[in-house]
Design brief:
The strands form two sheets. Strands 1, 2, 3, 4, 5, 6 and 7 form a seven-stranded mixed beta sheet that branches. This protein has ten helices and nine strands. It folds into three domains: 113 residues, Butyryl-Coa Dehydrogenase, subunit A, domain 1 (Orthogonal Bundle), CATH 1.10.540.10; 103 residues, Beta Barrel (Butyryl-CoA Dehydrogenase, subunit A, domain 2), CATH 2.40.110.10; 146 residues, Butyryl-CoA Dehydrogenase, subunit A, domain 3, CATH 1.20.140.10. β8 and β9 form a beta hairpin. The protein is α+β, with helices and mostly antiparallel strands. α3 runs antiparallel to α4, α6 packs antiparallel against α7 and α8 packs across α10.
Length: 373
């Protein structure tokens, strides 16, 4: 399996980095202090064609694989993690619609999704409970060729900013989580119940939504629902690793620079062995996050067992990324804990990369199940 980026993938990453340096990084610090949906920046992503990567070519997209999407998200996250997460959500949902949407659903939505004129959001988590449980869980009832959805969803990604949503809802109460499907709904039919104010990723729109007799199209079928949802979760896990990796790269770069320029006891603190070891740990964690996410993306693009690979990278990256943030703050000392510097924002953002989903979605379960076969 070749992990070397292709010429096209290198071009995507370079374009993402160039855009990040010019447009994203200068805006990120101020936007974090006064959180808002960065509509203008997302519009520029669309103009550059970045939001079309996951949509098949017949509907105006690039028809790119997951590895291409990683290159984009990683590059964007080096300067502005919230924008990277907005793009990652849109791309992941676009991939699911391209692979599993009916011809009618594709015709209705995909051209606008590819152009970026319609942003896609993802509604997976139930309010206060695991998927397919709780008093306010989203349920779906068939009505002709469509379904009627009722209930609530929380931690909706791109919530409040999206033009359409992929929503998971239970259509068979007796089947539990196995009786859950995925549906696509217009944002105009959804009530935004409130924004969620977060510790990090503060400009990544996240909301609670209400569904009251909302008519929806199913993605795939009732039988394929659980597999499609598992695929979506795996794609999100892989792209979340790219967000963490991008933030981590900038964190390491600034921490290494600080270690070379901060003088203590007559010498740069980078001369201190304890600092060197922490830097080595950060570099090692980044190295293996990148290897893990690249392997998982390659397996997905080749049609292999990407579910297990995604669980491996999530299990490692969600812990390693937190360690990257902690050690970077520690190396910066008091400056790392102040709001004047960027390092505390990186710490909050990198932690958020894996924190906005169902509490029951632990990767260890998937890994152990595979090991015990």
């Amino acid at each position: 399996m070749n992990f070397e980026y292709t010429q096209e993938q290198n071009a995507i990453k370079k374009a993402a980095l160039d855009f990040t340096v010019k447009e994203l990084a200068p805006a990120a610090h101020g936007d974090d202090r006064e959180p808002h949906y960065p509509r203008e920046l997302v519009g520029k992503l669309a103009q550059l064609g970045f939001l079309s990567l996951s949509v098949e070519k017949s509907y105006g997209g690039s028809g790119s694989g997951l590895m291409d999407m990683l290159c984009l998200v990683d590059g964007l996250a080096t300067g502005y993690a919230s924008v990277a997460s907005i793009a990652a959500t849109h791309l992941a949902c676009g991939k699911i619609l391209s692979r599993h949407g009916s011809d009618a659903v594709k015709e209705k939505y995909l051209k606008d999704v590819a152009k970026g004129s319609k942003l896609v959001g993802y509604a997976f988590a139930e309010p206060g409970a695991a998927p397919a449980s709780g008093d306010k869980k989203a349920v779906a009832a068939p009505e002709g060729e469509k379904y009627v959805l009722n209930g609530e969803k929380t931690f909706v990604l791109n919530g409040g900013a999206a033009d359409l949503y992929l929503v998971t809802a239970q259509f068979d109460a007796e089947a539990g989580p196995k009786g859950v499907g995925m549906f696509v709904v217009d944002a105009s039919d959804v009530e935004v119940l409130g924004d969620i104010d977060k510790l990090g990723l503060r400009c990544f729109p996240t909301a609670r939504i209400g569904l009251a007799n909302v008519k929806a199209d199913i993605v795939g079928s009732e039988e394929s629902g659980p597999k499609i949802i598992a695929e979506a979760q795996a794609i999100f896990d892989i792209l979340n690793a790219a967000v963490a990796c991008g933030v981590g790269r900038t964190t390491l770069s600034e921490t290494a620079t600080y270690s070379n320029t901060r003088i203590q006891f007559g010498a740069p603190i980078g001369k201190i062995q304890a600092v060197q070891w922490m830097l080595a740990d950060i570099g090692t964690d980044l190295h293996y996050i990148e290897l893990g996410m690249n392997k998982a993306a390659a397996v997905y693009d080749e049609g292999g067992d990407f579910i297990t690979e995604a669980a491996y990278v999530k299990n490692y990256a969600m812990n390693a990324s937190q360690d990257i943030g902690m050690k970077s703050v520690q190396i910066h000392g008091g400056m790392g804990y102040t709001r004047d510097a960027n390092i505390e924002r990186y710490f909050r953002d990198i932690r958020g990369a894996f924190h906005l989903e169902s509490i029951s979605d632990y990767p260890q379960k998937t890994i152990a199940k595979n090991l015990l076969k």
